[in-house]
Amino acid sequence: MQKTLLIGYLGKDPEMKYTPGGTAITTFPIASTERWKNGAGEPQEHTEWFNIKAFGKRAEVVAEHLHKGSRIFLEGRQRTESWDDKQSGGKKYMSFVYADKIEFLGESQRDGQKGELTRDQSYSQEDPTMITDSDIPF
Fold it and tell me: Per the CATH hierarchy, to which homologous superfamily does domain 4-32+45-133 belong?
């Protein structure tokens, strides 16, 4: 089992595109910061950036309601995608967290709404990356 849980802030506005089949895909980066004190009691911090992908209705809602600076809780799974670079001819790789659940933490500056986008809602069936019981061979 693989699960990724993140709380962080969007680093830029989400970018939405559609597949040739009409499925919405939204990508955006989030920054998550860890804070602690070292042995001398001095505050330390480290910020890690994560590339996120949302699919289907979830992708459309994210693109409509979230923006740079929005704080979210995200639950998902990590995937590494690869492609052939047209300039160098070499293989390129990029890791993403595919979002299964997104909760808005704080109010959106655009519309003042709080909300949650979960894979359990009716539109999650449009998510092409979701595995259902019928996909399991036993």
Answer: Nucleic acid-binding proteins (2.40.50.140)
Instruction: Report the distance separating Cα 50 and Cα 36, nearest Å.
Output: 20
Q: Which structure tokens are listed for 36?
A: 């602690």
43 burial level (CB within 10 Å; 0-12, 13-18, 19+) = exposed
- pLDDT (tens digit, 9 = 90+) per residue, 57-100? 999 999 999 999 999 999 999 999 999 999 999 999 999 999 99
Cα 47 from Cα 59, distance rounded (Å): 25
Rounded distance between C-alpha atoms, residue 42 and residue 36, angstroms: 8
